[in-house]
Specification:
The protein is an alpha/beta fold. It has one domain: Flavodoxin domain (Rossmann fold). It contains five helices and six strands; from the N terminus they run βαβαβαβαββα. Strands 1, 2, 3, 4, 5 and 6 form a six-stranded parallel β-sheet that branches. It is globular. It binds flavin mononucleotide. Flavin mononucleotide binds next to helix 1.
Length: 185
């Protein structure tokens, strides 16, 4: 049986990103039901409409990567109570030209972590709104995770049982939704 493919997009370009660590742990949690791959956004140039006539190679690779996945998992920090510019930039590249909007029709779930108690809650609201406008079906519910203390280690294993159980339930719901809408073969 082929598992549905899910592309992970981490909304951070930081080498030691805590969101990337969390994303690794989430992929480990659901690897029996979903086939995860990683979509890179940190090497994309700043969006510039002047580049549309001949899109940079990194941008072509990025949109081709997104197009491979019927479903996406966003794991993102919050910057100044919104989504980080590096993630918004990637979303903007994928949204143009309008008739080739690569986001339309995809299924997504999102989560994120920061050191604050409600960190990423507001950023996720903004992300949810943008993805909705672009035609992504975003799973309901919310999961914003405090990284104080760290719930995962550097290798993508949970060290906090409560957070693992909470996120297991969240990811199980996502796996069920993706399997229902995309199916297995
Ligand atoms: C420009 C900037 C703005 C930030 N704004 C917020 C914020 O609004 N809320 C929050 O919880 N943390 C905020 N932080 C702290 C980040 O959560 C923290 O840097 C975290 O490590 C980012 O995740 P990453 O390691 O995956 O990049 C901000 C950090 C930066 C650099």
């Amino acid at each position: 049986m082929t598992k549905p493919r899910v592309g992970i997009i981490v909304g951070s370009n930081r080498r030691e990103s805590i969101n990337r660590k969390l994303a690794k742990a989430l992929a480990n949690l659901e690897s029996e039901r979903l086939d995860f791959g990683w979509i890179r956004i940190d090497d994309l140039p700043m969006y510039n409409q002047d580049l549309e006539a001949d899109r940079p190679e990194t941008v072509r690779r990025f949109t081709a990567d997104v197009a491979q996945y019927p479903a996406l998992l966003f794991v993102t920090p919050e910057h100044n109570r919104s989504l980080p510019a590096v993630l918004k930039n990637a979303i903007d590249w994928g949204s143009k030209p309008t008739d080739q909007n690569v986001w339309r029709g995809r299924i997504a779930a999102m989560t994120g972590t920061s050191f604050g108690a409600i960190g990423t809650a507001v950023g996720q609201q903004h992300l949810r709104q943008i993805l909705g406008i672009l035609g992504v079906l975003v799973m309901g519910g919310e999961a914003y995770i405090s990284f104080r203390p760290a719930p995962v280690d550097d290798d993508g294993h949970f060290v906090d049982d409560n957070k693992r159980d909470f996120l297991q339930a969240y990811m199980d719901r996502f796996a069920a939704l993706v399997t229902k809408l995309v199916g297995t073969s």
